[in-house]
Each structure stands twice: as structure tokens, then as C-alpha cells.
Write a structure and sequence with these properties.
The complex is a heterotrimer of chains A (316), B (668) and C (220). Chain B has helices at residues 2-22, 28-52, 77-100, 107-110, 113-123, 130-148, 155-184, 191-196, 201-219, 228-234, 237-262, 268-291, 295-322, 326-361, 372-375, 377-390, 397-410, 418-449, 457-460, 467-485, 487-502, 529-550, 576-579, 581-591, 618-638, 646-666, and strands at residues 58-62, 71-75, 555-558, 595-599, 610-614. Chain B has 668 residues and is mainly alpha-helical. Chain C has eight helices and no strands. The chains are: A mainly alpha (316), B mainly alpha (668), C mainly alpha (220).
Chain lengths: 316, 668, 220
């Protein structure tokens, strides 16, 4: 019991500590691919520390909700990230929230972030919030259908059980898993505001979605929001890794040697995910805003097809 | 217990004439509402005791009505549950109206009908024969119609009342025919007799269609929903809350009572119809809501969406029951009934919020609100909780019922029929889509009305509403929270209901460790609202503590970022229509043929530019307009009957008489 | 035949259906031709896998023919035609991408229902592969119906034929001569269509088939 509790806390701190590094890796690889030197790998940590030391500037028309929202967003994202198996399935609290609840937690973080965009009462926040809810209105159903597919294959909606099932020899190569993986990658790109859906490094308001919502934040609030977006990226990469590349995840009772290997494997998967993401972002252009619904609609259709195939026959 | 319930209802009836007698006195309004509050609380507690300590159904007959029939009333678990829903809504509305009623211009048009409306709603779950059911059903419709046209000077309200009356009569006609068919087997109108006899499959299907039309029109199933967004906003806000939150649930009660209880064993293809209607209603309802900028109309369309979700749960329960899977049927039914409870709570909360806004600013249009979080802080927090609950965000109650419905969908691949295998994934996708769009809609509602800067002087000068209204909203918000973190208690309370209807119930939840809920088996899925809330709270507080230790805590106020175009006018911020524009373009252009027409003035002209958004209601164009056209065509043709001569009238009568005599002669 | 062989066959079939959907999604002609080439490559792979599993060496030749003609020669030819016609522009769909994909899902569901109900006693791998093959055929037809550009209609026709080849190789014992004759007839059809495209372009300056309707006087 104490061991399990310790592992749960270790996982929570691990995801918190590794998330800026993942974003740093993605930025570094993107810069290298564009023949720049790029910022150092540890730059996001330095950014966070710098932001924490700065004074917060609040807009005159903002309310108490504006000041509370960064904490709510961070809490929701951190709790969700802590429940995704990274190097060890069988997390102590995995039975409190299954994958549907994790997605709903991320959805509530997004709800509050969209409210923050509306709070100040300028047109920039409105652009961000309205586009974000349009993207969410298609990304979330696609994600739920992917959860359906996975739950129908694994027989459970709990992430630890799903990861354990995917790691066992009972799972074969299933068509619906393949379709689900493609749909999950598309949804993950949309949810994390990466190219081709949104540009995380833009300074032009008309091309922003996520950045426009958090335009007014500064200082420690902005540090929390940035940390939440790093955590969200880590969550999605870990999710794809634990579901579709589960090799190396140990079960609840494993020796220290296996655990060490599992941690190394996990860090390797994160690095691979980061490099692939950077490669993908560099090789494709950002879509027009109203092409994004077609993109996400395709993800929703793929996930719906995967669920349909699962309903039709057990062997799909 | 039964005597107390009946006495309470009679007292509610008596309050109606009392209100007429007291009209004109300033103390009449708070007195009547306080009396209603007390009676609703008493009736609700009565029903709660009946549900929790349930043993056998209680029935009693009152010598009222038709001489050979009497009026039968019965209290069984289903009735007790819906009585709890009714009385929670009634108590909250009465508490809200103690303060809100002071703003009423014509209390004499509202006060006499309100207690009678509450009494009729309390009687509907208790009625146990077709005659008394239809009488109290119509009574409920009539009193609510009187309340809808209470502000009769506005022609929109009169039109809303007319449409409402037409649809209600149409629905009652369908229900009358359904009860007639149900009673045709035995000739007896009591529910007991209907339960005992079984109809053939053709007649049972006909009864299902009639019940879907009759209760669906009252609940708001697409395409019979057209009266809802006209009538619900027209009534005073506490009555709107009752109509949306409670009366639509009584329509669900009627559906459950007739289809699950009286009709007996369902055929599997009935669930196809119910699921299809539920899915279409859910998506259409929320799409309509997203296009609105009138607060109350938006909330009314949202009720349509939630009714769709409830009917999806009911359809799943029907499918499972038809294939002999009572455990899964209990899950589907519990999900639907829990959503009935949840929706009545948070929809009433949101309608109270809009009533508070209406009384504080005089505005229902979101395009004229803004910045109310500074002027009405208590209302803002409570409405935020309502918005979170309705968007199905954990750890509140909306998420629990949606989660249970999704779990019911996940066990449905075991159903053997092909139609269901194809329909259920599609319905799951529409459920997910409507949940995501609902969250978008309520970001719009809260963001445009409460956040930002005030868009009109009325919004800038708003003030907080009376204490009793805030307390009423607070009680409902607390209920949302409680049902979210302790859902196991509510599911256990529903166990006797599902046991009576589908002969099984969900596993006992209160005995599970840490108060999680486990719908099927621990290994499949579980959810613990209390712990999720505790985690969110503790990690938020940990973050706040760490930040305040490690980071600077200085702050200052400054102007917002304006990108070099300083224009302090609040008109430059996003309005409800602009917020919904991306979704309107993606979904609305297909469903509503949404077109935006911008008229720019010529260069040099000082005229303003205009942006018009044109939407067409597809269901009105497809279903209602042709019917209205046919009716007016026929009535024009038949108008000639008004102007015949006496000789013509006599010859008409003569012809009919001869026809009837011929029929009598030719009768074998 | 369960286990990995079953799953790989299913995966290849599923990839074919996925690529048909990707074809429906494409806007631009060059991307569409690339997706069609990928479609043909996956078809060749699945035919080769069937050859390995069934122990039928003549199917390797079928796979090689599919690879050579449909993955290399025909896309190359189509790219040259597109460049010569000068139509690197967007394809106009008759219905939007969303509705086309929704219709595609309906067609897949339909073919599942039809195939799995009509063949209750057959080998499960063959039944489900036939169901996938029917859906590929229907998706090819859908593409022909929802496009205005003649080149994309040709590609829809080709992917329909891919589905037929896939169905034929799934059943055991398809003789080589059938495949050769089918492939040659498709090649002839393709050449004829290519010639016609050039003639249409010369006459009407466009390959938009709606313009042909206007020229015939059928559309105002």
C-alpha cells in the first residue's frame, strides 16, 4: 500500500518534471531541422523560472475568475496526467478515473481556459475561445469514439487495464486498433495545438487559437498555463505510448531492475515521440482554420468506423 | 403517509383561490410562495421516505370522476422518484420566487395558477388509471398555459401560448388513443388491469408510436419540440424552470410508465425508434441552442438536447430488456433516470440564473449583457456551477449520468440484432458530439453574459438579486455538487425503481470502498467522484502554495492588450453570434443553411455596416409549415360552409340523415 | 486460420479501406494520384500475402502485375496527363468532404451487413475479407459519383477494380489467366479514357464533366 502510494507520487513528480524537457526537445529538433541551432534543451525550465519571478499584470476588466483559472487548469491537467500509466501499470488510483473521466478532466481544463479568453473582454480572447470550442466540438467526440474502440477491444475503460491488455499476447493486430491509432494521433495534434491545427510559436493573433486565449496572462499565471500545456503534450505522448507501444511497461509487482528498464524505455518513447512530432510539424504547413473541421471530421469518421467494425465482429 | 400526501396536494389546490382572495395585498406574493415552499418540502420528504423505505405499493381510490370508475391513485417506487424530482423543483422555484416575485408586474395573473400547477404536477405520478391520469395531465397543461400567457401584452407570448395549446392538445389526443388501445383488451381503465393484459405485437407497436407522439411532444422530442422554445421563455422565470426542469420529466415518467410498466415485454425494434429519435433530438437541440442569443430560448433548446440524452438511455434499456439482459437494462434505465434528476436540478438552476439576470438588468438578450460577474458575484458563481454541471464536467453530476450512459453503450456489442449493432455506435457518436457542443454552448453563455465588459447601460448598472433567490440557486448548486461526488447514494436510491420495472438493479454502490461507483464489475470500469474532487482540490492548493512560496506575489492592474488600436468601446468584444460563428459555419451551414450577409457602405458614406445572419429552421420548414399550409388551405375551402342558404343547410342535414339510415339498413 | 496470419490479412484489408477513405478526403489531384499509388502498393502486398498463406505461387505474379502497372505505370501516366492538361488545382466535390465520408461509413456498414448475413457458414477470414472488398468497391463508386473532374473519376474506377482484384484473390484458386485478362482490359480502358480526355480538353478547354452537360444543352 505504501509502496503503491509512493509509486503514484513518483509518477506524478516524474510527469511534472519531464514535461518541459519534452517540449524543449521538440523545439530543439524543429530548429535543427530548419538548420538553426535552436534554444537549449533546458530552456523551458528557465522560461518557467523567469515567469515565476515576474510581476503579474492584470487587465482592468478582468475578474477573480481570471486569477483562479490557471490553478484550476493546472490541477485538472496534472491529475489527468498522473493517471496515465508511464512506466508501470496498476497505478494506485487508476480506479478513481477511467479514460473517459481523464478526457473529461482535460475537457474541463479547456472549458476554463476558454472562459479565461472571454474574461478580459477583448476581441483576441474571443477569437481564441470561439475557435478552441469549435476544434473541441469535433476533437472530443473523436476522442470518445477512440475510447469506445479501445474499451471494446480491451474489455475495460480503465487505463491500467487497457495498458496491461495491450502488453499481453492476447491482443493481435486489429484493424480497428490501426484506425484508432491514426485517429488518436490526429486528435492529439489538434488537442495540443500543434501544426497543422494551430501554431504554438506564432505571434500573429489571426493564426492563434491557444495562444490567443492566454494572451492576457503574465507572470506566475502564465507559468502555470505553460506548464499545463507541457503536461498535456506529455499526457498525449504517454497515452499513445502506453496504448500502442506498451513494450516495457511493468506490472504492479516488479523488481527494481525491471522498473529501471521500464523508466528508461519510457524516456526513450517520449524522446521518439518528440522527434516524430517535430519531424511531422516541420514537414507540413498549418491548415486554414476552416480546414481543421474537415481534418477532425476525418478523425471522427475513422474512429466511428473503428467502433462500428468492433460492433460488427469480434475479430476486427 | 398517504393521507399526508393527499392533504398536501389538497392544500396546494386550496392555495389557488386563496391567492385570488388575497390579490392586491403586497404580502400575498411572498405568502403564497412560502406556503408552496413548505408544502413542496413536506411532499418531497414524504416521497423520499416512501422511496427509501419501500416495501409494497400503496394504492387508494377516491370516489371522484366517473361514477363506475372512481379515481385510482398509487404510490410505487417510480412514482416516488418522480415525486421527489417534482418537489425539489417546486420547492426551489417557490424559494426563488419569494424574492423574484417582487418584480412581477401582474401577480394576479401568476399567483392563482402557480399552486394549482404544483398540485397537478404532484398528482401526475400518483395517477393509477387512464381517466385520472389524463385529467391531471390536461390540468397541468392548462395551468401552465395560463402561466405562459401571464404577460399577455406581448404578442410573442400570445403566439407561444397558442402553439403550446395546440401541441398539448395534440399530445393528449395521442395519449387518449394510446390508453384506449391499452384498455381495449380488458375494457378496464385502471393501470392494474392494463398491466395484467398483454396486447398483440401490432397493437403494442401502435401504442408505442402513439405514446412517443404524446409524451414526446410534451417532453420535446424532435420533431415535436417546436412549442418548447416558444413557450418556456414566455413564462415567468420560476415557471420556466418548472416547465423545463420538471414538466418535461413528467412526460418522461409517462413514457416509462406506459412502455416499461404497462406494455410489458418490448419488441427489440422499438428501441431502434427510441434510440434514433433520442440521438437526433440530442444533436439538433444543442445545434439550435448554439445559434441562439436569447438566454431563455437557448436554455429551452438545451432542454430538448437533454431529453434526447434521456431517451437514448431509455432506448438502450429497452434494447437490453427485449434481448433478455436485465442487468444491462437496469444500467441503461438508471443512467436515464439519474439524468432526469440531474437535469431537473441544473436546468432549474440555470433558469433561475437567467431570471436573476432578467430582474437585475431587464434584458434576456446576451448581446446586451456582459461583465455581470463584477455586479452580481453570488449569482455568477452559482450559474458557473450550473454551466459546469450541464457541460458534463467532473466532478459534478452531469458527468456521472453521461458516464453511465456511455458505459451502457459499451456493453451493447453483446446485442445480437444487426440494426442495433449499426445504430448504437452512431448514437454513441451523436451523444459524444452533443456533449462537446453543449460545453461550447455554455462557454458562450457564461462568457458572453457574465465575463468581459458590459455591452449596455442596463448591464453596467445591474445589482445582485434578493437573498432568497440566491439561496434557492445555492441549494440547487449544492445538490449538483453532492450528486457529483456521492453518486453511489443516488444510484442505490434508484435500485427499487429499476427492480420494479426490469426485474434487476445495479450492484449495491454504497458498500464499495471509498464510495466509487461500479456499474458492472470492478475490473471493467469505476469512477470515484469524491476522490477526483479531492485530487483536483489538493493539487490546486499544492500548486497555489508552491507558487506563493517560490514565486513573486506582486501584481498590478493595467489596460488590456489592444495591439495598437486603442478602442475602449465594449462593442469591440465578442458577442454571442460572433462566438458561435465558427460552429455556425461548420455545422450550421449544413443543418440550418446559415448564411451571413454583410452589407458594407460605399466609400465616403457614413452609414454603418450591417451583418445579418440568416438561418432556416429545417424542421419547421419540413414538418410544421406544410401542416399549417394544409390546414389553412382546407379551412379556406371549407369556409364556404359558413355562407350557405337555409335551404342548403337543411339539405345537408337531410343528406346526412339519409346516409346514416342507409348505413343502418345495410349493417349485416 | 487464426492468429497472426488472420490479423495480417485483416490489417492489409483494413489499410485498403483506409486508403479508399483517404482518397475521398483528398482535394488536390497530385495527392490523389499518390494515394492511389499507395492503394495499389497495399493491394500488391495483400495479394502477395495471400499467395504466401494459400501457397499459390501464381498470385505472386498477380501482385507483381498490380505493383508494376497500378503502382508505377498508371500513376506516372496520370501525372503526365495532369501536367499536360494543366490541372493542379483543387478538385470540386459535388458534396462536401464531411458528407462524402459519412456516406462512406454508411457504405462500409452496408457491405458489412450484407456480406456477413449472406455467408453465415463460410470461413470467417474469407467472409470478412469479402466484406472489406465490397466496401472498397462501393467506396470507389462513391468517389466516381461525388467528383466532377474526369481524372478523379478514373481513379475511382481504378480503385474499384482494385477492390475486385482483392475479392478475387481472397477466394482460393483464382487462375492467372483471369487476372491477366482483367488487367489488360483495364489498361485498354485506361488508354481509351486518356485519349478521350485529350479530345475533350481540345474541344471544350476543360475536363469538368458538368461543362460537358452544358455543351450538350442539358443544363441551363
Amino acid at each position: 500500500m505504501i509502496r503503491d502510494l509512493a509509486f503514484q507520487f513518483a509518477q506524478m513528480l516524474l510527469v511534472l518534471g519531464l514535461s518541459p524537457l519534452l517540449t524543449g526537445l521538440v523545439r530543439k529538433v524543429k530548429a535543427r531541422l530548419l538548420r538553426r541551432k535552436g534554444p537549449p534543451l533546458l530552456q523551458p525550465y528557465r522560461d518557467l523560472v523567469r515567469l515565476l519571478r515576474k510581476e503579474v499584470v492584470l487587465a482592468e476588466s478582468s475578474s477573480w475568475l481570471f486569477r483562479v483559472i490557471p490553478y484550476v487548469v493546472f490541477a485538472g491537467t496534472w491529475v489527468a496526467a498522473a493517471l496515465v500509466p508511464t512506466f508501470r501499470s496498476g497505478l494506485l488510483f487508476s480506479w478513481t478515473a477511467d479514460l473517459i473521466a481523464i478526457i473529461a478532466l482535460l475537457g474541463s481544463a479547456r472549458f476554463f481556459l476558454a472562459l479565461a479568453g472571454m474574461d478580459v473582454g477583448t476581441s483576441f480572447g474571443g477569437i481564441g475561445s470561439s475557435r478552441e470550442v469549435m476544434i473541441a466540438s469535433l476533437a472530443e467526440p473523436a476522442m470518445l469514439m477512440i475510447v469506445f474502440t479501445l474499451a471494446l477491444i480491451a474489455g475495460s475503460t480503465q487505463l491500467s487495464a487497457m495498458a496491461a491488455f495491450m502488453n499481453s499476447p492476447e491482443v493481435g493486430l486489429r484493424v480497428s486498433l490501426g484506425l484508432g491509432m491514426i485517429a488518436l494521433v490526429m486528435v492529439a495534434i489538434a488537442e495540443n495545438a500543434r501544426i497543422p491545427v494551430d501554431n504554438p510559436a506564432t505571434h500573429l493573433e489571426l493564426t492563434m487559437v491557444h495562444e490567443a486565449m492566454v494572451l492576457e496572462y503574465s507572470g506566475r499565471h502564465l507559468a502555470l498555463i505553460e506548464l499545463s500545456s507541457y503536461l498535456k503534450l506529455l499526457l498525449y505522448v504517454s497515452l499513445i505510448a502506453c496504448l500502442f507501444a506498451p513494450w516495457g511497461i511493468t506490472t504492479a509487482n516488479a523488481e527494481p531492475a525491471q522498473l529501471a528498464i521500464a523508466v528508461v524505455a519510457y524516456i526513450g518513447k517520449l524522446a521518439a515521440g518528440g522527434v516524430l512530432l517535430a519531424l511531422f510539424e516541420t514537414s507540413i504547413a498549418k491548415m486554414r482554420v476552416f480546414r481543421v473541421p474537415q481534418f477532425l471530421g476525418a478523425a471522427l469518421m475513422l474512429a466511428l468506423l473503428a467502433t462500428l467494425l468492433r460492433f460488427v465482429s469480434r475479430s476486427f | 403517509m398517504t393521507g399526508g400526501a393527499l392533504a398536501g396536494i389538497v392544500a396546494l389546490f386550496a392555495l389557488g383561490p386563496t391567492a385570488i382572495a388575497l390579490s392586491g395585498l403586497r404580502v400575498a406574493s411572498p405568502f403564497i410562495y412560502a406556503a408552496c415552499l413548505a408544502l413542496a418540502l413536506a411532499l418531497g420528504t414524504n416521497a423520499l421516505v416512501a422511496l427509501l423505505g419501500f416495501t409494497t405499493p400503496i394504492a387508494w381510490t377516491v370516489p371522484f370522476g366517473l361514477p363506475w370508475l372512481g379515481a385510482h391513485f398509487a404510490l410505487d417506487p417510480l412514482s416516488a422518484f418522480f415525486l421527489i424530482v417534482v418537489n425539489i423543483g417546486a420547492a426551489a422555484a417557490s424559494l426563488f420566487a419569494i424574492g423574484y416575485g417582487r418584480h412581477e408586474d401582474a401577480p394576479g395573473r401568476v399567483l392563482p395558477f402557480y399552486p394549482v400547477y404544483l398540485a397537478a404536477m404532484n398528482l401526475v405520478p400518483l395517477a393509477a388509471d387512464a381517466f385520472s391520469f389524463l385529467v391531471v395531465w390536461e390540468f397541468m397543461s392548462l395551468t401552465s398555459w395560463a402561466l405562459v400567457i401571464a404577460h399577455h401584452r406581448d404578442p410573442e407570448n400570445l403566439r407561444a401560448g397558442l402553439v403550446y395549446l395546440l401541441m398539448a392538445s395534440f399530445g393528449t389526443l395521442a395519449l387518449l388513443l394510446a390508453f384506449g388501445l391499452l384498455a381495449s383488451a380488458g375494457g378496464d381503465y385502471t393501470f392494474e388491469a392494463m398491466r395484467a393484459t398483454h396486447l398483440g405485437p401490432g397493437l403494442a407497436a401502435l401504442v408505442l408510436i402513439l405514446v412517443l407522439i404524446g409524451t414526446g411532444s410534451k417532453a420535446g422530442l424532435v420533431p415535436l419540440h417546436a412549442w418548447l422554445p416558444l413557450a418556456h421563455p414566455a413564462a415567468p422565470s420560476h415557471v420556466s424552470a418548472l416547465m423545463s426542469g420538471v414538466m418535461t420529466k413528467l412526460a418522461v415518467y409517462a413514457f416509462v410508465r406506459i412502455v416499461f410498466d404497462l406494455l410489458g415485454s418490448p419488441a427489440w425494434w422499438w428501441s431502434l425508434i427510441v434510440l434514433a429519435l433520442g440521438g437526433v433530438t440530442a444533436v439538433m437541440g444543442v445545434l439550435y441552442a448554439l445559434m441562439q442569443h436569447d438566454l431563455k430560448r437557448l436554455l429551452a433548446y438545451h432542454t430538448v438536447e437533454n431529453i434526447g440524452i434521456i431517451f437514448i438511455g431509455l432506448g438502450l434499456a429497452l434494447a437490453f430488456q427485449a434481448h433478455g439482459m436485465p442487468n444491462a437494462a437496469a444500467l441503461g434505465l438508471t443512467a436515464a433516470l439519474l439524468h432526469v434528476f440531474n437535469h431537473s436540478v441544473f436546468k432549474s438552476l440555470l433558469f433561475f440564473g437567467s431570471g436573476a439576470i432578467l430582474s437585475a438588468t431587464g434584458e434576456r438578450d446576451m448581446e446586451k449583457l456582459g461583465g455581470l460577474i463584477h455586479r452580481m458575484p453570488h449569482t455568477a458563481v452559482l450559474v458557473l456551477i450550473g454551466c459546469m454541471a450541464i457541460s458534463a464536467l467532473p466532478p459534478l453530476n452531469g458527468f456521472v449520468s453521461e458516464w453511465l450512459t456511455l458505459q451502457a453503450i459499451l456493453i451493447s456489442p453483446q446485442l445480437p440484432s444487426w440494426g442495433l449493432k449499426l445504430m448504437i455506435p452512431a448514437v454513441g457518436a451523436t451523444l459524444a458530439l452533443s456533449a462537446a457542443l453543449a460545453a461550447a454552448c455554455f462557454v458562450k453563455v457564461f462568457g458572453v453574459s457574465f465575463l468581459g465588459r458590459p455591452r449596455s447601460p442596463q448591464a453596467a448598472n445591474a445589482h445582485e438579486v434578493e437573498r432568497s433567490s440566491v439561496v434557492a440557486m445555492g441549494v440547487l448548486a449544492a445538490l449538483c455538487f453532492l450528486a457529483g461526488i456521492l453518486p453511489g447514494l443516488f444510484i442505490d436510491a434508484l435500485a427499487p425503481v429499476t427492480q420494479a420495472l426490469v426485474n434487476d438493479s445495479m450492484p449495491h454502490q454504497s458498500s464499495i470502498a471509498w464510495l466509487s461507483i461500479v456499474p458492472i464489475a470492478e475490473s471493467r470500469s469505476s469512477y470515484n467522484g469524491l476522490l477526483v474532487f479531492a485530487f483536483i482540490l489538493s493539487s490546486g492548493m499544492l500548486a497555489a502554495y508552491a507558487i506563493h512560496r517560490l514565486a513573486s506575489d506582486k501584481w498590478r492592474k493595467g489596460p488590456a492588450w489592444d495591439c495598437g488600436f486603442p478602442n475602449a468601446d465594449p462593442v469591440t468584444q465578442y458577442t454571442a453570434s460572433s462566438f458561435a460563428q465558427p460552429i455556425r459555419r461548420v455545422f450550421g451551414s449544413v443543418v440550418f443553411q446559415a448564411r451571413e450577409i454583410g452589407e458594407m457602405p460605399l466609400p465616403g458614406s457614413m452609414a454603418p455596416a450591417h451583418l445579418t445572419v440568416r438561418l432556416r429552421d429545417p424542421i419547421w420548414d419540413a414538418c410544421y409549415a406544410p401542416v399549417a399550409g394544409i390546414v389553412s388551405f382546407l379551412s379556406e375551402r371549407l369556409n364556404v360552409l359558413q355562407f350557405l342558404t337555409i335551404r342548403r343547410y337543411l339539405s345537408l342535414v337531410f343528406a346526412l340523415l339519409v346516409l346514416l339510415l342507409l348505413a343502418l339498413a345495410a349493417w349485416p | 486460420m487464426h492468429g497472426l496470419t488472420f490479423d495480417i490479412a485483416h490489417m492489409l484489408a483494413g489499410s485498403l479501406v483506409l486508403l479508399s477513405f483517404v482518397q475521398l478526403y483528398q482535394d488536390r489531384l497530385t495527392a490523389l494520384i499518390n494515394v492511389f499509388a499507395a492503394h495499389a502498393i497495399v493491394l500488391a502486398a495483400s495479394v502477395a500475402w495471400q499467395a504466401f498463406v494459400q501457397g499459390a505461387p501464381h498470385l505472386y505474379i498477380t501482385a507483381a502485375i498490380a505493383l508494376a502497372f497500378k503502382a508505377v505505370a498508371i500513376p506516372y501516366g496520370l501525372r503526365r496527363i495532369v501536367v499536360q492538361l494543366g490541372i493542379h488545382r483543387e478538385i470540386e466535390n459535388v458534396v462536401g468532404v464531411g458528407l462524402a465520408m459519412l456516406a462512406g461509413i454508411g457504405l462500409v456498414a452496408l457491405s458489412m451487413v450484407v456480406m456477413l448475413r449472406v455467408t453465415p457458414g463460410a470461413d470467417p477470414l474469407a467472409r470478412e475479407d469479402l466484406a472489406f472488398a465490397l466496401s472498397i468497391v462501393l467506396l470507389g463508386l462513391l468517389m466516381m459519383v461525388t467528383r466532377r473532374n474526369a481524372v478523379s473519376q478514373v481513379i475511382g474506377f481504378m480503385s474499384l477494380e482494385n477492390g475486385l482484384v482483392f475479392a478475387a484473390t481472397g477466394a482460393k484458386g483464382m487462375p492467372l489467366v483471369v487476372e491477366i485478362s482483367v488487367a489488360f482490359s483495364v489498361l485498354i480502358a485506361f488508354i481509351v479514357i486518356g485519349i478521350f480526355l485529350f479530345r475533350i480538353r481540345e474541344r471544350f478547354d476543360t475536363v469538368d464533366v458538368q461543362a460537358l452537360d452544358e455543351a450538350r444543352g442539358e443544363r441551363p
